[in-house]
Design a protein that fits this description.
single chain; about 400 residues; 10-stranded mixed β-sheet; 12 strands; about 30% helix; globular
Length: about 400
């Protein structure tokens, strides 16, 4: 079996819903990161691409119902100007789509079906269309309701158990209730995300990881609130349940707010994967090895807890233990679910999302897996730690995780 390596990663700044990237089509966002990461690889010239240097483009996307035109990976390669001979496939595992793309590509490399695979993901939640179901009979007399494809359930099968089909926010309230995650802890975690994100940008951590989108003024993640504090966030109204004043996290009262949850976002990410021999083709040296992969599932309403088992499986596949892990990139769908996972792993919270997370930076569903994988590889390079875990929760009760080994580790 071949080893699969990370050679490079980039992403766009993440924009707010209706914000700085809302005017850009998702296929154009995807094409931009595809074109940009190819241009950063000295060996991936037009001649090399035409000769088959890139075996496949695998992209994640949670929507597909609009301007993505079902297969946004193929659309992106064509719009980016890659040769028409480069194939592309789109993966949909909702929030985990681009991490799943990386997992799929790494397996292609492992079995020898591919040598270089460009992976990533994209989402424009601003531009997600409304959909209208078709009627069973022509000329219906009654009204029809449009369904938003931006986030969550739509056109639900009536035989699905109702406890599974609650909103993501209500599901998170149920999860924090089960695990006793207080409102104060959630707000503290959220303020930490904003402040670490702001610090990382100010220190230049993201300078080489983020490529601005032409035609926009956005140069950094739009949702970051510098100077955030738990005290400020504590004044926000709850979003999914009434606030009964009990902040303990153990009662039926609401605790989840717009401030301690990830926002709707737009953006794209890309990661260049290859075998060890691919260094000569790409013209770069690998920076991290994909050492373990894990997928897990549980009850749909407890989707936020699924990364716990996924990471456990990925770590076992890598042949290491949690006490060897020096960095974790956990996608922050909600503060409550992030804290539940960290508590279950029994790890030092200080190693998690050192450079901020999705609560501050945003969560464009199809792009987030690529973001955390690329950030993890870059973070390990910076600190010299050997092992890191990228993990993400997924709507409908799933989780994914990848273990990376830093090839330039100090120990």
């Amino acid at each position: 079996m071949n080893e699969a390596f990370v050679y490079d990663s980039i992403r766009t700044p993440f924009g707010k819903f209706g914000g700085g990237l809302a005017a850009i089509r998702p296929d154009d966002l995807a094409a931009h990161v595809v074109r940009s990461i190819v241009n950063r690889a000295p060996g991936l010239t037009i001649d090399a691409l035409e000769a088959g240097a890139v075996d496949e483009v695998v992209f994640g996307n949670a929507n597909g119902a609009g301007e993505e035109n079902r297969n946004v990976a193929r659309m992106a390669t064509l719009l980016a100007g890659l040769p028409t001979s480069v194939p592309g496939t789109t993966v949909n595992r909702l929030c985990g789509s681009s991490l799943d793309a990386a997992i799929i590509a790494s397996r292609q490399i492992a079995v020898g079906d591919a040598d270089v695979v460009l992976v990533g993901g994209v989402e424009s939640m601003s531009r997600a269309p409304w959909v209208l179901p078709k009627t069973e009979k022509p000329y219906p007399a009654g009204d029809m309701m449009l369904a938003s494809t931006t986030l969550g359930w739509r056109l639900v099968n009536p035989t699905m158990p109702p406890e599974w089909t609650v909103s993501n926010g209500e599901a998170t309230e149920q999860l924090r209730e089960r695990h006793g995650i207080s409102r104060d802890r959630q707000d503290e975690f959220a303020s930490r995300s904003h402040n670490l994100s702001d610090e990382a940008w100010n220190e230049g951590f993201y300078d080489d990881l983020v490529v601005p989108v032409p035609g926009t003024d956005l140069t950094r993640d739009e949702g970051i609130r510098s100077g955030s504090s738990a005290e400020k966030l504590s004044g926000l109204r709850t979003s999914f349940r009434p606030d009964n004043g009990d902040r303990s996290g153990t009662t039926k009262g609401g605790t989840v707010t717009a401030g301690n949850a990830s926002p709707l976002s737009d953006g794209a990410s890309a990661v260049l994967l290859g075998s060890g021999a691919a260094a000569a083709t790409i013209g770069l040296e690998p920076i991290a090895r994909i050492a373990g992969r894990g997928a897990a599932a549980n009850e749909p309403q407890f989707f936020g807890f699924a990364p716990v088992e996924a990471a456990k499986r990925a770590i076992a596949k890598a042949g290491i233990s949690w006490d060897q892990v020096g960095a974790v990139e956990l996608n922050e769908a909600f503060a409550a679910q992030s804290l539940a996972c960290i508590d279950a792993w029994k790890i030092d919270p200080g190693i998690v999302n050192r450079h901020g997370g999705a609560i501050a930076m945003g969560h464009p569903l199809g792009a987030s897996g690529g973001r955390i994988l690329g950030t993890l590889a870059h973070s390990l390079q910076r600190t010299g730690e050997r092992w890191g875990v990228a993990a993400i929760c997924i709507g409908l009760g799933q989780g994914l995780a990848v273990v990376l080994e830093n090839l330039t580790a100090k120990n």
